[in-house]
Specification:
The protein has 127 residues and is mostly helical. The protein has helices at residues 2-27, 42-60, 70-90, 99-123.
Length: 127
């Protein structure tokens, strides 16, 4: 039983680290022109999608902040990471720091956490 718990905990933490590392890796690339532009503001949708997945990985790991207000801690932590990500991009040739990207990041976080709160309210009435 303990081995199963440890494996689950490692998988949860691994998912969070994968998302954080993946965002960092993508932000460190000089150009992300591998995806052909299909519509206007496609990059904003991709930013929101990545931070939506980050919010899911934080929800899975919400036990890391169980003594505090987990949703608030996750949201503020996500925003801090998004700000640091935009600052990081400003040092990469071919990339820039964008308020629009930051807003898309925050929108992705907010969507993920809002869906979690809605789910918890609707389906977890007793807990």
């Amino acid at each position: 039983m303990k081995a199963r718990f440890l494996l689950q905990a490692a998988a949860k933490r691994g998912f969070l680290l994968f998302m954080l590392g993946g965002i960092f890796y993508l932000s460190h690339q000089p150009s992300l022109k591998v995806i052909p532009p299909l519509f206007t503001h496609q990059d904003k949708v991709l930013h929101a999608g990545m931070y939506f997945l980050l919010s899911i990985s934080m929800i899975v790991n919400r036990d890391l902040c169980r003594r505090f207000y987990p949703v608030t801690v996750m949201f503020v932590s996500g925003i801090i990471y998004a700000i640091s990500d935009e600052i990081h991009q400003s040092f990469i040739p071919g990339r820039d720091c964008s308020a629009g990207d930051l807003l898309a990041d925050i929108a992705g976080l907010a969507l993920g956490l809002s869906l979690y709160l809605w789910y918890r309210k609707e389906f977890k009435k007793n807990g």
